[in-house]
Design a protein that fits this description.
The protein is α+β, with helices and mostly antiparallel strands. The protein has three domains: 143 residues, no CATH class; 156 residues, Zincin-like (2-Layer Sandwich); 127 residues, Neutral Protease Domain 2 (Neutral Protease, domain 2), CATH 1.10.390.10. It is built from twelve helices and 22 strands. The strands form seven sheets. The protein has an eight-stranded mixed β-sheet, with no helix packed on it. It has a three-stranded antiparallel β-sheet with strand order 3-7-6, covered by helices on one side. The chain has a three-stranded mixed β-sheet with strand order 16-17-18, with no helix packed on it. Helix 6 crosses helix 7, helix 9 crosses helix 10 and helix 9 runs antiparallel to helix 12. The protein is globular, with a radius of gyration of 23 Å.
Length: 493
């Protein structure tokens, strides 16, 4: 059934593309205007993303009512056309699209699979800024799995985007499910800023990525507004509703440190209070100030899919997770993502090692810092016992076998690549590579080749062979400086 659905979706998109192209050819008024592409051509997520424009900001509104799973919602995208466009698309898997306005004027629209195709009443000129206002219905009972995952028949989505709790919800959008919550250009290559407006009953709280900018009470309901002013990919924004206790700390150099834990799980505040020490340590280790003006952790009253997620400014964990002192290093893992993954996003999902590899590398340094496990011991275990097995299962670090592998398939090999690079060029040069890469691509998306170019420029060395071995081969290379380390072969099937 999965293959059949996939074939039908591809055929539908191909047919729609043909119609759009035919419409472009037949429009004398539009001149050189053509339809925007229906994807960005990501190898692992071939239907994801949209061409013809650069999204600059999203303004997302939810009206939460606890007695129903549906929410009246809207999103306004501000974008700049990168070509002259007759039509364009957004990724969308919301329950119902009710209306679409382009620059305030009604526009024709069609929903095909997970695409919302929009035809404005006039072509959009290249370089023009425009807005798209979409009224829609979100449904927290619907969490369709990614089409790219090709799950076997009868297997449900293992990571529902709507993580419902007894008194609200949180989002789990990575890697490509943000457009189940709001129509968007849902690919990390197109970062944007965000405003979130969530209306709730007065006895329920709304929290989101970014800085709290206002609360407006009207009768027995409250609209809470958050602003995320730094460009961030769609897959790591958070919007959550529940009854939360706020945990405030005085952060370094004016940084607001504000966490939220469920009212009925005060024990989760133990983990929230670890945040300040971890921030100070990580800023010193990376040598750069924290990239956002606010930070904290979010504990939710659910298992949260059994994972933690690097949602921007507000990484998300289950409340039970935050209570467990053994998970302190994982908190740092998600904090590292604020630098690598959120502020410096990946250009394509093949580049995910740049995010996960950095998170595991610095997490391992923190484990050494707190006396949990020596850094070298951790790296040796990953090299000797784990890496060939993960390569066998997931494929090469920067060319994974499957779309689902982006969640964890490159973490071990990515961390070892960074460790091997450090051993090869020395700690001082490695630190300069890391800082130069971060400084160069802060607020942007970066590819594997971007990192390699920075490493070669800073080190003054040809590193093509090194990175080829660590990122694109299916077996573990020798570890520089550790001739006595021998990676175990993957178990025979």
């Amino acid at each position: 059934m999965a293959n059949g659905n996939r074939a039908g979706r591809v055929a539908a998109l191909a047919g729609l593309t043909a119609l759009l192209v035919a419409g472009a050819a037949g429009s004398a008024e539009a001149g050189a205007a053509t339809p925007g592409a229906l994807s960005v051509g990501d190898r692992l997520y071939p239907d994801l993303g949209n061409g013809g424009y650069d999204a600059r900001s999203y303004d997302v509104s939810f009206d939460y009512r606890p007695e129903v799973t549906t929410m009246d919602a809207s999103v306004t995208m501000r974008a700049v056309a990168t070509q002259s466009m007759l039509r364009f698309s957004l990724d969308s898997a919301v329950r119902q699209v009710r209306s679409v306005l382009v620059d305030g004027r009604p526009a024709a629209f069609e929903v095909t699979g997970e695409k919302l195709v929009i035809t404005p009443d006039r072509a959009l000129a290249r370089g023009r800024e425009f807005t798209v206002a979409i009224g829609y219905v979100a449904d927290r009972s619907l969490s369709p799995a990614s089409p790219a995952w090709k799950l076997p028949p009868g297997i449900k989505n293992p990571f529902p985007v709507w993580q419902n709790t007894p008194d609200g919800f949180a989002l789990l959008s990575q890697p490509d499910r943000a457009h189940v919550a709001f129509p968007s250009n849902d690919h990390p290559s197109d970062k944007a800023t965000f405003t979130f407006r969530v209306t709730t009953p007065a006895d329920v709280d709304a929290v989101a990525s970014g800085t709290l900018t206002g609360k407006d009470r009207h009768g027995d309901r409250v609209t809470t507004v958050y602003r995320l002013a730094q460009p961030t990919p769609t897959d790591v924004v958070q919007i959550a509703v529940g009854r939360f206790t706020e945990v405030d700390q005085a952060g370094p150099h004016g940084l607001t440190v504000r966490s939220y834990v469920p009212d009925d799980r005060p024990d989760a505040a133990v983990g929230a209070r670890r945040t300040l020490e971890q921030l100070v340590w990580l800023e010193g280790e990376i040598g750069r100030p924290f990239p956002y003006p606010t930070y904290g952790v979010l504990g939710v009253d659910s298992e949260y899919g059994g994972v933690a997620l690097e949602t921007a400014t507000l990484p998300t964990f289950s409340a039970a997770f935050l209570h467990d002192p053994r998970e302190a290093a994982t908190q740092v893992h998600e904090m590292v993502h604020q630098y690598f993954g959120d502020t410096v996003a990946v250009r394509s999902w093949d580049d995910m090692w740049l995010s996960e590899g950095h998170a595991v590398y610095y997490q391992s340094l923190y484990q050494d810092h707190i006396g949990e496990k020596p850094f070298e011991t951790g790296m040796k275990e990953r090299y000797v016992d784990v890496n060939n097995q993960q390569l066998e299962q997931e494929g090469p670090v920067a060319h994974l076998n499957s779309a689902s592998g982006v969640l964890s398939g490159s973490d071990n090999g990515g961390a070892l690549t960074l460790y091997a690079l450090r051993n090869l060029v020395g700690q001082n040069t490695f630190t300069r590579i890391e800082q130069t890469f971060y400084d160069t691509f802060r607020g942007r998306s970066a590819s594997t080749q971007d990192y390699i170019a920075v490493a070669e420029r800073v080190s003054g060395r040809d590193l093509a062979g090194f990175f080829q071995g660590w990122l694109y081969r299916a077996t573990t290379p020798p570890m520089p400086g550790r001739p006595d380390w021998h990676a175990k072969p993957a178990p025979a099937n």
